[in-house]
Amino acid sequence: MKVIIAGHYITQFGELWSKSLIDLMREAIKGAIEDSGLTETDIEAVFVSNMGSGQNDNQLHLGALASQMISGYPAASRTEGACASGGLAMIAAEQALLSNQYQTVLVVGVEKMNDADSSLTTKYLAAAANYTTESGSTFPGLYAILANAHIKKFGTTRSQLSAVAKKNHHHGFDNSQAQYHKQLTIEQISNSSLVADPLRLLDCSPITDGAAAVVLTTKQLKEQKRKRASIIGRGHGQDSLDLANRRSLIELDATTKAAKQAYQMAGLTSGDIEVAEVHDCFTIAEILAIEDLGFFKKGEGGKATEEGQTTYGGKVVINPSGGLKASGHPVGATGVKQIAYLAKLLEEKKFTRALAHNVGGSGATAIVHILSS
Amino acid sequence: MKPAQYWRDKQIINDYLGKTGQVVANTVIRTTSPELSHMAPYSYVIVDFSGIKKEMMGVGNEVLVAGDSVVCVIRRMGLGDLQGLIDYGLKVKKIME
Question: What ipTM does the predicted assembly reach?
Fold first, then answer.
């Protein structure tokens, strides 16, 4: 049974002062259904992904809210897995389809982060870490620890970290829905303010509002104006929530586990992937991702990026949307946006095999999807 | 501050107070939440206590790096309620040779 991406929609990402959480969710839901060519009554269930609506908007029970936006009040639920919420919601939706409980479902990821003061946002994002054993940590701080470990082991350089950000801003420049349309130089990135040593401001993905939705189906679609992408592999890996209990600080075991499952299910290897949206919440996160997903040897991710191997004309195009760094990171929406964006690229025949990589916490949760045209 | 949580959190202090270990991973946090912003920048490290690793904040005005030997001490954790209970906890301090 094939899971077909029948429709997809991504809202503008950025500081969207005129749009509320509900506005964004409604826009993404309506947009994805319209794009699918199906009707609202075709949607049998809706899976919502979100992390912070309880704190930011004093609004939980998002499943019911989303269901209310679709005729017939389809069954609904909300999934939370920090920044991996979107990937987890996708897995839940796919499992519901593959179990034959439903034939057509909708997944919507949404986050409204800018209404709150940025210091409060920093605090709630830190809730993705282990509250009792990582007291005093921040997200940049946890990834800075990973960066220092990678630098110490492999000699990853400041300019290699900056090369990730430069490349992603270059990609994001052409993505009309990206938060930033600004090319950056290595010097600008390398000289930006320190946030948690060695990570600087421009190593970090921004605070973003946005939503994305996809319609998934196992039915044969009547309207065939375009060839839809399908999901041919998925994987879900876990590791300890706190860094102190990790086996390694230079490899995210959750990613390697998820990738192995996905490649095995798809009958593919990393060499078959032409394009990937990976979880670059910080520049070091992309370097770890491209190594752990098997695109480059451990320790060579920085060098590969600096040499242009992760952009057009290189070995594999990483984060063509601009990634989290330039496109933005509305936490609950990111995992769904990755799928939606890649589906569009496959439909446009720009690539034939794509991979989406979504991570929660400092690597406690990882979801990998493989898409095919 | 929630009294029950405060009481629970303090139970483990005796287990680690005075214990020594070695820093195995480090960073300096410069931007943080409102409760801790007055303490920034501060070291945030992973310490190996004879095989058990814990993530800890470093004491104020001390930069810790991998390889440093440290000891667990009690320090104020955040501003908390200036009229009420002091929010204290375990941090690590470099052992001077």
Answer: 0.92
